[in-house]
Amino acid sequence: MNICSPYLEINLPAIYHNAKVIVEKGKEQGILIDGVTKVSLGDPKIARVLVKAGVFGISDSRIESIKRMKEDGLDTQFTLIRLPCLSQVEEEIKYADVSLNSEFITLKALNEAGERLKKKHKVIIMVEMGDIREGIWNKEELYFVIGEVLKMENLELWGIGTNFTCFGGVIPTEEKYISFLEIVRDLEKRFNISFPMVSGGNSSSISLLFEGKIPSGINHLRIGEGIMLGRETSYRKPVLGARTDTFKFVGEILEIKEKPSIPWGIIGEDAFGHKPSFKVRGIRKRALLNFGRQDIDPEGLIPETFGIEILGATSDYTVVDISENDSLKVGDSISFSLNYSALLQAFTSPFVKKIYKEVDL
Ligand SMILES: *Cc1c(COP(=O)(O)O)cnc(C)c1O
């Protein structure tokens, strides 16, 4: 089969397997797993596989992606995991069943939109535990926001949540979770309530999950990368029993020439405003591939084809050294595995075709 490249091969059986491994591990400990589809822009085929594997719901960062999955007919609980936009509250109420929140003004607008649309919406209030991204840090503000949400007729206080290892790189430890749970218990006592959902972190909590060390009281995690790439993100280790062959990126050789390894002439900046630097290696055999920064993050590709070294990329070309591989010719396909950043870029690029390895469920 001749598929026009570049393309991203999506291995649905492998994704299904990974989701199942993590969902089962959660089940043993009373922890529900939401499958996070944001890296795939809410790909409905992937979402469907996650639902079949038993995830509690689907979480995505964009309301457009949630809309896409809903319009494709997927029936599950959808959570918007980026804070809602004040300018989009109606769409958010319409398409998301749950959202993560930290601002009173937005909660108020969501409540009013719920009134207009005659729809009840569930909210999870986010607590800042040190990663310095989203969430309320100040205790008085937390009391105020919870107290107000309890009075809002179109919002249901569905839970309390926190996030780690996204901006600050803070690793979730047992101690972090215990401090988080102290805040949760304090709120429950103060307002005489019980949160249905106590939502911990993301794929950086997988190693704690597999060691059985997530303190009881946390009953929900939101997992993207762990399922999609079979890796936890605190230490970047493969998830036990998971597959890492979930995605493959394939491009094609456009030019092969022997060229000096350093440029000649007066050196200014490259196309992206960086001063390039090169290793002196004499004349090398190099190939130009048919994709670039519009399609991938060159730092996030790992060649699967033997004897290939990535030198860099411009918008539309990736330059590789192929001196160690004698068999390559113009038109040959070159395949790579991807890290999260390259995968995100590949999904985002309209130039990268998406090819599915189907799963029979
Ligand atoms: C992206 C995200 C997740 C999932 O993160 P992974 O590392 O891909 O598991 C979970 N929660 C929030 C709030 C997120 O933004």
Automatic annotation (TrEMBL):
Keyword field contains Cytoplasm: no
Catalytic activity annotation: L-ornithine = D-ornithine
Record-annotated Alanine racemase N-terminal domain positions: 10-227
GO cellular component: cytosol
UniProt cross-references to InterPro entries, sorted A to Z: Ala_racemase, Ala_racemase_N, PLP-binding_barrel
Keywords annotated in UniProt: Isomerase, Pyridoxal phosphate
UniProt keyword Isomerase present: yes
Molecular function GO terms recorded: alanine racemase activity; ornithine racemase activity; pyridoxal phosphate binding
PANTHER family: ALANINE RACEMASE (PTHR30511), LYSINE RACEMASE (PTHR30511:SF3)
Cited Pfam families: Ala_racemase_N (PF01168)
EC nos: 5.1.1.12
Protein name per Swiss-Prot or TrEMBL: ornithine racemase
EC category name: isomerase
